[in-house]
Amino acid sequence: MICYQIFWYLYLLTHYIKEDFMLWTFDIIEEHFGFMLVFGDLIYVPFLYSIVGWFIVDNINQTLSIPWILLTLLIHFFGHFIFRETNWQKFEIRKHGSKNAKIWGETVKLLDGKLLISGFWGIGRHLNYTGEIFTYLSIAMCSGMTFWIPYILPFSLFILLSQRAFRDDQRCRKKYGQLWDEYCKIATFRIIPFIY
User: Fold this and answer.
1) Which of 5, 32, 33, 126 gives a 20 to 30 Å CA spacing to 70?
2) Is the pLDDT confidence value at 29 over 70?
3) Can you tell me the distance from the alpha carbon of 130 to that of 193, in angstroms, rounded to the nearest whole number?
4) Count of C-beta atoms within a 10 Å radius of residue 82
5) Res. 191: pLDDT tops 80
6) pTM higher than 0.90 for the full model?
7) What does the pLDDT average to over 161-175?
8) In 88-182, at which residue ranges do the beta strands (DSSP E only) sit?
9) What is the mean predicted confidence (pLDDT) over 178-192?
10) Residue 68 and residue 134: Cα distance in Å, rounded?
11) CA separation for the pair 11, 22 (Å, rounded)
12) Helix (H) or strand (E) run with residue 135 in it
């Protein structure tokens, strides 16, 4: 329960550090505060986000091994870092431009002045989704492995974000044409490096 509470606290804290980045997301720009965001706020947040907490409370006598806790912490901080850092990298370029920005200590690179190919965006097209899935997986892992219900959240998020990555790719291919094909040769992965 301590890990569960800390993970959600960090999730919210890091969200509010650069809260204005939400105005530059796909949900706002392309879907105009659309169905996916409203569905997420009305279904995911009150119901699915709390499933793990309820499961932990109902199974309070179940103890987790130290290796399991360490693995959970590792997955959380790895996923959370990727999740936030990828979103913040793109946000900084959109908000402040690429002239003076640096990512990982290097000058920002853009493909034809339009598509970011520095940092995580030069590795994969939607690694922010990868980080988000790992973050939610670690939250589910706070309940152990004795039951599948706490894993509904990361599993359903994987399905939703895989479908969204596919839609994002279609939208970007239509918008950027040949340039998107060039970008895909640089950022070869959608969500899971070397797999998808």
Assistant:
1) 126
2) no
3) 9
4) 22
5) yes
6) no
7) 88
8) 102-103, 106-107, 110-111, 115-116
9) 88
10) 15
11) 14
12) helix 127-141
Contact 100, 31 (CB under 8 A): no
Under a CB-based contact definition with an 8 Å cutoff, are residues 159 and 48 in contact? no
Structure tokens given for 134: 């790992």
Distance (Å, rounded) from C-alpha 153 to C-alpha 54? Answer: 13
Each domain of the chain, given as residue ranges in start order, spans: 2-15+34-186
Dist. CA 151–CA 173, nearest whole Å = 33
CB 191 within 8 A of CB 161: yes
Tokens of 92: 């900084």
Residues in the chain: 196
Instruction: Give 54-81 pLDDT, tens digit per residue.
Output: 888 887 777 889 999 999 999 999 999 9
Indicate the pairing of strand 106-107 with strand 110-111.
unpaired
